[in-house]
Design a protein that fits this description.
By secondary structure, this protein is an alpha+beta fold. It has 4 helices and 8 strands, in the order ββααββββββαα. Helix 3 packs across helix 4. This is SRPBCC family protein.
Amino acid sequence: MPSSISNDDFGVATAADTVLIERTLPGPIERVWAYLTESDKRSTWLASGEMELHAGGRVDMEFRNSELTENDEAPPQKYAQYAGPSQMHGRIIACDPPRLLEYSWGEADSDSQVRFELTPRGKDVQLVVTHSRLATRDDMTSVAAGWHTHLGILADRLAGRTPPGFWATHTRVEAEYEKRIPRE
């Protein structure tokens, strides 16, 4: 049964260039860490690719968003270039297994950064994702909807549920983020 989206699932803009999204996930923390860092597990919810888990280490990701879920819709026209494989390369900024992972989202100095913080909560894990240095409000709404959708798939995978379609979900939540993220 697919997860439903509640108001508590939506991320928030914490600064003009930053979005923060939290999820409570089935643990233990080492399992969630593996889904963040191991290519075969990460490919089931985000992207495949290797990570050198030390400061300065390389991050290589290959996204296949149209292959993440079954029974999906085609991507909206503005994301058509992401229907097939797309690449992202970055560098590890901080790595403290299994509690903290931060890396650049791209290799240029102006590219954004994503930070994952994991905290055990009994049998569950609190995951906080902070994506910062986003250049525009459009980037923030797109990134917020992307993380929202990807993290929903992660939660479903960890709970043994079949996630709803990536693009169908992304389209729906991006429209909601358009309303929620403040205009300058």
